[in-house]
Amino acid sequence: MNAAAPPAQAGKPDKPSDNLVEIRGLHYTIGRRPVFSGLDIGMRRGRITAIMGPSGTGKTTLLRLMTRQIEPDRGTITVDGQDLSQLSRAGLYRLRRRMGMLFQNGALLTDLDVFENVAFPLREHTNLPERLIRHIVLTKLHAVGLRGAAEMLPSELSGGMARRVALARAIVMDPDILIYDEPFAGLDPISLGVILRLIRQMNDALGITSIVVSHDVQELSTIADESYLLAEGRVVASGSPAELHANTSDIVRQFMNGMADGPVPFHFPAPDYSVQLLARGDRRRQRRESRS
Amino acid sequence: MRLLRDLIYSARESLLTLGRVFLFFLQLLAYTPAALWRLRLVVHQTYNAGALSLVIIMTCALFVGMVLGLLGYDLLSRVGSEDILGAGAALALTKQLGPVMTALLFAGRAGTALASEIGLMRATDQLSAMQMMAVDPVRRVVLPRFLGGVVAMPCLTAIFIAIGIFGVQLVGVEQVGIDPGSFWSQMRAAVELDDISEGMLKGSVFGIACSLIAVYEGYNSVPTAEGVGRATTRTVVISSVATLLLNFILTAFML
To answer: Is A72 in contact with A28 (CB distance < 8 Å)?
Structure first.
């Protein structure tokens, strides 16, 4: 797979209906810094798609754009054929009911215990009897191995446990799409293995489309069906994990092999070191000079 | 020139913020009928804002009443009119001190709790998680807290006034020996229903203002530790100034 290959070349050519999520010509800027400039990505139904890239490339921003938590400057994002920018607030909320999202820190509601956290979407969106809610919640908690923690508060959970509870909450409405934002960050090897297994199991058992954002190459390689590598505001490579590993592009090799310096420089852009060290005046003046 | 430009910029920003707060208030009003179907949430927040503020409100009311009793007695005894201590203190507490002091204490206790709680929920992605679960955080988190504050404030005001009068009585009757019959009868003759209504109206208006400022600041806080801290501080400062300003306006209209 070549660097910067268009998404249609990732594996077999896609029919439009194959992609549950389609991103075309996406532009997004934070302040004066362009985060995405013409991003094209397609995510296929029933597959695990990994979005990878160095820190600061806008992976989490992409998730927020895909769920319309923020609006793009230009470009279209369609989910199951629905253009997000055209959706009314009610339409967006209807669509979100078909999505589950696992936040980086779990984002559990701290005033509710584990059981109530998982039951929260059911209580908000359904009129199911209490017995059925209890049955569903315990089933989902059992699936993530935390049925025994139902009475615990979020503050009593470890990071890995909190993420598993958040996963149970994300699947409680049986979503079509499950979005994971950095699901492996800060986990010990056992918790990491558990989360990896759960992502694969959820995808296969429930037939959902999974989108995983992470920079953990090795972990993602074991579960992803296809991957996109983002850098400099665009897709620099895409394909199966094996194809990405075989890619000879400098930037892909730097990322896949974890090299400290390369096309993605070790140093953040800065004025000349010696000039900055020898410069007189206060920091405000230096900042003004470096800007000019 | 630069000062003038800064002043114009600040005035423009203040007006814009005022407009945003007003729109936020209208949004809360529009959602209020739906909240009545989920009274449990409102009752829970009324308990948080009201019942949990009771100790500080009652303690402060007692001391305010006792100081008012001491100063009032000292002043009135110079002209031989100490019998009207109960009437004067009751009027001061009902029309001014009760609502204003309660609002200031409410802003410091419940207002900061509301702002920091909502701000922390934003900082820890709990509000984003709700939005992703297709649950509107304004309806689910902000509105019950706002209504809880609005319901709690007039009740706290009434309690403050009652405890304050008890404090005046402790000093005036129990300590310095004013005749209790004279104390209570003068009070009953001086305080009319309109005075109590004025106090309760002020309590309600301050409750709306303080709760609105607290939930607005929390909901729009920058999702960082510094942002939440700043929102909490702004809640106390803006609520206090708004209370005193509204008190002046209401007093001017009700004279």
So the answer is: yes
Q: State how far the Cα of A90 lies from the Cα of A103, in Å rounded to an integer.
A: 23
Write out pLDDT tens, residues A177-193: 999 988 887 777 887 88
By the 8 A CB rule, do B106 and B207 touch? yes
**Does the beta carbon of B131 lie under 8 angstroms from any beta carbon of chain A?**
yes
**A11 within domain boundaries:** yes
ipTM of the prediction greater than 0.85, yes or no: no
Are A124 and B129 a contacting pair at CB < 8 A?
Answer: no
Nearest to A103 among B121, B125, B135 (CB): B125
CATH number, domain of A272, equals 3.40.50.300
Paired tokens of B254: 């009700």
Judged by a CB distance cut-off of 8 A, whether residue B197 touches chain A is no
Tokens of B75: 């002043």
Question: Taking CB atoms and an 8 Å limit, are A101 and B129 in contact across chains?
Answer: yes
Q: How many domains are contained in chain A?
A: 1
**What tens digit of pLDDT does each residue of B116-163 get?**
999 999 999 999 999 999 999 999 999 999 999 999 999 999 999 999
Residue at A148 is within a domain? no
* Spatial separation of the C-alpha atoms in residues A219 and A151, rounded to whole Å: 31
- Residue A276's domain comprises 7-98+175-291
